[in-house]
Amino acid sequence: MLARHVSTCVPHDFYLQWRAQEGAPAAFRDSAPGGPPPERWLQEVWAHQRVRREELKTTDGRRLTVLHPGLWNHEAGPDFRGAMIQIDDQEPVTGDIEIDLTSAGWKSHGHFQNPEYAQVVLHVVWEPSATPPLLPTLGLQALLDEPVQELGPWIGGPAEFPAEWLSGHCASPLRHLDTAQQEALLLQAAAVRLRCKAHAFRARARVAGWHQALWEGAFRALGYKHNAWPMQRLAELLPVARGIAVESREGWEARLLGLSGLLPAEPQAGSYGRRLWDLWWRDRDTLRPHILPPLAWRLNGVRPANHPQRRIALAAAWVADPDWPGRVETWFAQQTDDPDPNADESLTESIRPEAVGFWRRHYTLTARDLPEAPPLLGAGRLADLAANVILPWLWARADAGTDPAARQRVEQLYFRWPPGEDNTALKLVRARLLGEAPLPGRRSVALQQGLLQVARDFCSTTNLLCENCRFPALVAQWNPSVPGTWPEPTPAPTP
Ligand code: SF4
């Protein structure tokens, strides 16, 4: 399949082989037989929330809701900073998360008397001990969203990147590959990324159903980098939100904005915020335990067009359409083996709601009128939605239904899809890997995804100095036109 999209002289799975020897799969393999997985792998599980989120309970039996898992801290101190959790119906709290193999780590690592750990609100461990813990504790082992051996090789996703990264050690060997070879490498990495994301969708669909898994992915994509988690939480609340009848798109705006905690507390008389508030107040008491605290959202530094209020208005338009997931399915059913060069436009037509009423000319509930009416979903965002949500979800469905032809059609679309929005993470990894050089080959979302996957598999396992990173050596020893320069074949992980 992939060979159709990349150079024909390239073995179809060399990146998969590299990955099997490195990164997350290697970290997982390194654990002692029968023993707990390495701590680094537990951090991955937490970062990507590969747990059954509805069933989380602290070791003393209290319901735990993760409103934000926090930002991965690669420096000294707790493993995740700035997380937000809620225990039972108490006020949500913000703080740090420390991850250890066992509860005993809290004492034996000296965290309990280290001021750096004073803000830790949750201790996440693989196997909790029977003795009462010193702070709220979550045991991961029994709560993974799929069995550990299945999850091991496929866990993955975008990582957080510190902004000060500079050109990496791999930039030089990559420069010695020709454009076709560079493109082949990145597209193979993109193929791995598609499967990682598809795997997560399939795991979630087993628990929540295919449509709910799609909703969660779509909402999360609307949250961009900083508000992905509260948006995911809103999607998780959809079954509850649907428990009270609501018919209009405006009614859904009121419901979702009310649940988000982002409706202004005292809207001006006659404003649109007031109108939504009047729709929301009747349901507020019933839904009160689920309302997110405004602090769950990050609003500083968010571009006005990406403000969560506007993104929630878009999500409300989707939810108000009783057949939105069906639109995605219908669009895909119309794709043939001959990839439609305008598939992105036809998807846009299928799923982009019109910006109507208030949202035609406002980015937020309190912003001034806009001179023009921007679309609710731009082309770049749609490309990200396609690459991160819709195509992986369709691939997972095709795979679960054992329909190789449908899987191939998804891949054809994926490798031809136009590029998404540029962002800091992409700029950074491009600078690290390629320096000033342009992306090899035809610009596509898959090339962007390939870059992000290399960053995730290699950059994120080492430090800013590329210490012990094997990627440069792998690239240097690889020359697809010279037999014998391939890495030794190793069994690839089976999805
Ligand atoms: S960590 Fe590895 S893959 Fe990342 S820039 Fe450095 S050498 Fe390249």
Describe this structure in words.
The chain contains 20 helices and 6 strands. It has 495 residues and is of the alpha/beta class. It has a domain of 93 residues. Strands 1, 2, 3, 4, 5 and 6 form a 6-stranded mixed sheet that branches. Helix 8 packs antiparallel against helix 9 and helix 8 packs antiparallel against helix 16. The C terminus is likely disordered. The structure holds iron/sulfur cluster (SF4). Iron/sulfur cluster binds next to helix 18 and helix 20.
Number of helices: 20
- Percent of residues in beta strands? 5-15%
Overall strand count: 6
* Mean pLDDT over all positions: 85
Structural class: alpha/beta
Terminal CA distance: 16 Å
Largest sheet: 6 strands, mixed
The small molecules bound here are: iron/sulfur cluster
Which regions are unreliable across 5 or more consecutive residues at pLDDT < 50? 157-165, 482-495
Q: Could you give the order of the helices and strands?
A: HHHEEEEHEEHHHHHHHHHHHHHHHH
